[in-house]
Design brief:
Strand content: 5-15%
Protein name: Enolase C-terminal domain-containing protein
InterPro entries: DgoD-like, Enolase-like_C_sf, Enolase_C-like
Shape: globular
Number of strands: 3
Strand order of the largest sheet: 1-2-3
Distance between the termini: 34 Å
Number of helices: 4
Helix content: 40-55%
Number of domains: 1
Largest sheet: 3 strands, parallel
């Protein structure tokens, strides 16, 4: 699925008032996630698939995520 498709789907789903979109795109680009987050009124969630606390900080600093779902075993406690 292309990035533009993800943004279009997110826009269409807004009418159902989801709480957040969890990992709406691959979690390997904070900049792309920030662009996605800016394209919708629904919060974006970065889940426990990130390997340490530093990717979460980078995403929060870029306003790429509004909700962080952390697995303490994966992120170093």
């Amino acid at each position: 699925m292309e990035f533009a498709d993800c943004k279009n789907i997110a826009k269409e789903l807004e009418q159902f008032n989801p709480t957040w979109y969890e990992d709406p795109i691959r979690m390997n680009s904070p900049q792309a996630l920030a662009e996605f987050a800016a394209s919708t009124s629904v919060w974006t969630c970065a889940s426990e698939t990130l390997g340490s606390r530093w990717p979460y900080k980078d995403m929060l600093d870029r306003d790429a995520t509004h909700v962080v779902m952390v697995d303490l075993c994966w992120t170093g406690g």
